[in-house]
Design brief:
Blueprint: H1 2-11, H2 18-25, E1 28-33, E2 38-42, H3 43-46, E3 47-49, E4 52-53, E5 59-65, E6 73-81, E7 89-100, E8 108-117, E9 124-125, H4 127-133, H5 140-153, H6 165-187, H7 233-238, E10 254-260, E11 266-272, H8 274-277, E12 282-287, E13 296-297, E14 304-305, E15 311-312, E16 318-324, H9 327-336, E17 338-343, H10 350-356, E18 380-388, E19 400-405, E20 411-415, H11 420-431, E21 438-441, H12 457-470, E22 474-477, H13 480-486, E23 493-501, E24 507-516, H14 525-532
Parallel strand pairs: 10-22, 20-21
Antiparallel strand pairs: 1-2, 1-5, 3-4, 6-7, 7-8, 8-9, 10-16, 11-15, 11-17, 12-16, 13-14, 18-23, 19-20, 19-22, 23-24
Helix pairs in contact: 4-5, 5-6, 11-12
């Protein structure tokens, strides 16, 4: 919680739930510079703009001092979001008030601070309204005047970012109203109309719990249609379920670090692994020259390489692997491999590919009639274009595998994959051995969503090649940035259309041109495009 809140302070999030509370409470932030100087900044002056603070680039937040409350001092926080649990605020508030009791008559407000989030580009103290309350009597008349003052101070223009200006203003005023009634109910209960006491109540959320009940089965025939627990349910909820990276590291196991292309399109002129091999714990470099079988693979056409042989076609494409005794050493060493490139022109994005006439395969066509022969007289013509961005599969468990050479030419592969058969085929082809000599196991995946249907095979094949060469177990699990860089994603699309519609709404013709960004190879683009059609 401390780490998350420190991040909120540094980022000056305008809808932070805690920032208004700290401002209202008069919290002090202690900042320490790189030269050792220390200064204290009041929370009301800390946030200076959207995602900006009074902290300089050479300072860090050292501590937060939060004053205690005492008798006749009240503090509360409020939040309004679209749902009660686990949601960001639309408007939030921190309210603080100090009261001076009077022997006769209404108590006086010694001091007050009302701070709001979601009403400005940053969490902000309502300075004028807070000053207005100082010295005023704690009464309904003062409350009515306060609401009028806040309404002016918290005014939002109709074009304010985030919209819902009337709603946000109403919510902010209601928070101040609730807090004032709450303080009044504690200091002068007799002055509070009983119908207003519900404003003082704090909603109590019961402990969240869930249960799923399974009916006992009288015999085996009752299983059809019955609610049965997942075979590994208990292991999942206890954390005992074992994924690839959870497998204990056996003696002699090496970890693979990826040497990937630094350019989207480049000729690889020379690879020098010497700087990496000079490090402690680094054992070997494996690349195209170590492959005993085929370097080519693909789903519909074999147009992808396991290791770059001559020209890299995308950033991050595997040039080789560095093998080391631990994961960190492998990744550090992989960055030290010296690769000489000749950078080539790259085609990036659908529009650039259309301009260059860069197509992976022949067009797929669906025709009914001929739009070129339509008489457009009296028709309303509508034409436009639209883009749909790509999407990461973003499985929780990144691509991972463990390849272990067995007796003779056999290879045992434990991998997170949706397609064990495809993996077996490509690994066997790369190693130059029959498929029957490759065993592929996948007990469970930490998510796949299509991203492990074909996009794990080149990494697994490269890892198996390393295991074959060194005759040792080799394992790899990608960092998130590596995974997103080299595995591809769901296809971005561009569509252009031209339609002819009768005035009564009947569609006469529709001409659609649909383009999918395949990247640099076919993979499964053709069936994806056909499904889109």
């Amino acid at each position: 919680t401390t780490e998350i809140y420190t991040l909120s302070l540094h980022d000056a999030l305008p809808i932070s739930d805690l920032n208004p509370v700290l401002i209202a409470s008069g919290a002090e932030f202690r900042l320490r510079g790189t030269d050792g100087t220390v200064r204290d900044v009041n929370s009301a002056n800390f946030f200076t703009g959207y995602r900006k603070t009074a902290m300089s680039a050479d300072e860090v937040l050292e501590s937060v001092f939060l004053p205690f409350t005492s008798q006749h001092v009240y503090a509360r926080g409020y939040k309004q979001s679209k749902r009660r649990d686990d949601d960001i605020a639309i408007v939030n508030a921190g309210c603080w008030m100090s009261i001076t009791p009077q022997e006769n008559g209404c108590p006086l407000i010694r001091d007050a601070r009302l701070a709001f989030g979601g009403m400005a580009p940053f969490s902000k103290l309502a300075t004028e309204s807070s000053k207005f309350l100082q010295g005023k009597s704690l009464s309904m008349e003062t409350l009515n005047s306060l609401i009028s003052s806040l309404g002016k101070e918290l005014f939002l223009k109709p074009d304010t970012p985030g919209g819902m200006v009337a709603f946000r203003q109403s919510v902010a005023l209601s928070f101040a109203y609730k807090f004032f009634v709450f303080v009044l109910s504690k200091e002068c209960p007799s002055l509070v109309d009983p119908t207003l006491l519900s404003a003082c109540e704090v909603p109590k959320q019961p402990l969240t719990k869930g249960a799923q009940h399974y009916a006992s089965l009288s015999n085996e025939k009752d299983k059809a249609g019955a609610g049965l627990a997942h075979v590994a349910a208990e292991m999942h909820v206890t954390g005992e379920a074992q994924y690839v990276d959870d497998i204990p590291v056996s003696k002699g196991t090496l970890f693979a670090g990826i040497v990937g292309s630094k350019h989207a399109h480049a000729k690889v002129l020379n690879v020098n692994p010497a700087p990496a091999l000079a490090l402690d714990k680094v054992h070997e470099y494996v690349g195209i020259d170590d492959l005993k079988g085929s370097n080519w693979f693909g789903s519909l056409q074999k147009d992808e390489e396991i290791f770059v042989q001559d020209v890299a076609l995308h950033k991050g494409q595997i040039i080789g692997l560095i093998l080391a005794e631990d994961q960190i050493s492998a990744r550090i060493a992989a960055e030290l491999v010296d690769v000489e490139y000749e950078v080539l022109p790259a085609v990036i994005g659908i529009d650039a590919a259309l301009e260059a006439k860069s197509f992976i395969w022949d067009p797929a066509v669906l025709n009914k009639g001929n739009v070129d022969n339509v008489d457009e007289t009296g028709l309303i013509i509508v034409e436009d274009e639209m883009y749909v961005n790509g999407q990461e599969h973003f499985y929780l468990e990144t691509q991972a595998c463990l390849c272990t050479p067995l007796d003779s030419t056999e290879m045992d592969v434990i991998v997170s994959t949706q397609n064990p058969t495809k993996t077996q085929t490509v690994v066997a082809s790369a190693l130059g051995i029959p498929k029957s000599r490759v065993t592929v196991r996948c007990r469970r995946m930490g998510g796949g969503f299509g991203g492990k249907e074909t996009r794990n095979v080149f990494l697994t094949a490269a890892t198996a090649c390393a295991a074959q060469k060194l005759r040792k177990p080799v394992r790899v699990m990608l960092d998130r940035d590596e995974d997103m860089s080299i595995t591809g994603q769901r296809h971005p699309f561009k569509g252009t259309f031209r339609a002819g519609v009768h005035p009564d709404g009947r569609l006469e013709f529709l001409d659609v041109q649909l383009y999918a960004n395949a990247g640099c190879t076919m993979d499964l683009t053709r069936p994806v495009l056909e499904r889109a059609m």
